[in-house]
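Researcher: Re-running this chain for the archive, since the previous output was lost when a drive failed. Same request as before.
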Amino acid sequence: MKIGLAAVLAAAFVLAGCGPIMETKRDFIPPQSNAGMKCVQTCQQQQGACQKAEAKEKERCRAKAERRADKAYEKARDAYITALKLHAADAAKYPMPVEPTRSVDYSACNKSSQCGIQYDTCYRSCGGQINEYQVCVANCEE
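Model: Regenerated structure tokens:
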């Protein structure tokens, strides 16, 4: 009975992966007035500045992560050299150490962008409209 249930669950899982893949599309309807259009231009400039600031912050974050990785590696390398000397002096007493590797953790630098959200809010405040809708892009039923 357990095997039959597992097979049914596995089949359901596989079939669920074959469902349609949807993507959100967006239509931007511009404001009617000239003032609204000028306002949208300001939104675009602000979005550009936002994207530049986010890119600069990500670059700073990645550089900081690199420096942390360098320091951690140097510390681990020093400990490795010390352990290697101890092993060379008395292999029976001290095991062969594992050589350290350098790894960088960029996870703190992978923040989601707020520029799009800010742009959408600005665009709407200028009198523009944003219509979102779903479109099937794969495994669509016709």
